[in-house]
Amino acid sequence: MNDVVSREVWLEARRALLAREKEATRLRDRINAERLALPWVKVDKDYVFDTPHGKKTLAALFDGRSQLMVYHFMLGPDWQAGCPGCSFLCDHLDGALPHLNHHDVTLVAASRAPMEKIAAYKKRMGWAFPWVSSFGSDFNFDYHVSFTEEDLSRDKVFYNFTSIAPEQANDELPGISAFYKDEAGNVYHTYSSYARGPEELIGTLMILDRAPKGRNEGSTMDFVRRHDEYETRKAEAACH
Q: Each residue of 194-229: pLDDT tens digit?
């Protein structure tokens, strides 16, 4: 249990922490500016996705907007259910959709599982956000979120902009990527973030960070379950 003090002592400690929180906010603003200033890479490969409305190119996924965010959801072709950690994050997306769409941003999830498996899991979870299948394309491999058996048999795997040991990887890993489409229809890759990078999308964690016990975890998100399993299953690893 934390120290119990007078209101005056608490206010002094809280003001000291507030100064640090303001530092963090200003640092976040600077990092955001640096993120926006990153150079872009033109996407020359023709990626095609399966969707509930037929096959669509990466350019078509923008759905009439100039910006596209793709959440790389961990659901492989042979998986029976989506990653609990990815599911936890995606529980927070539907409420953001109207705000993003009216701010010229389209958000979709993409997985290598076939469309029928995606549709079944999406129905189970009760989600509405767009979710497409990259099965049969190089998209997941080119953006370093899916790995073949051959990849995992090597000494190193490239993930989160570095080489990691294969035992730290899996056939699927999480991330988010951003793309821009200009008026001529050219598509550019502008940003990607992996591992804990997309964590700020998870509003529940931001609330827990301010709760008396914080995240109250032994390892990253070890308390997380799919939202329909809290009463029936023990917690499992947030990502496979």
A: 999 999 999 999 999 999 999 999 999 999 999 999
Q: What is the pLDDT of residues 149-191, one digit of tens each?
A: 999 999 999 999 999 998 889 999 999 999 999 999 999 999 9
**Are the beta carbons of 129 and 97 closer than 8 angstroms?**
yes
Please, are residues 75 and 111 in contact by the beta-carbon 8 Å criterion? yes
**In whole angstroms, what is the distance from residue 180 CA to residue 189 CA?**
7
SS3 174: coil
The first and second tokens of residue 50, run together, are 């399966």
**Burial status of residue 187 (CB atoms within 10 A of its CB: 0-12, 13-18, 19 or more):** buried
pTM to 2 decimal places: 0.94
Q: Collapse the DSSP code of 172 into the 3-class scheme (helix H, G, I; strand E, B; otherwise coil) and give the result.
A: strand
Question: What is the model's pLDDT at position 73?
Answer: 98
Count Cβ atoms within 10 A of the Cβ of residue 215 and give its class: 0-12 exposed, 13-18 middle, 19 or more buried. middle
What tokens appear for 213 in the block? 């016990």
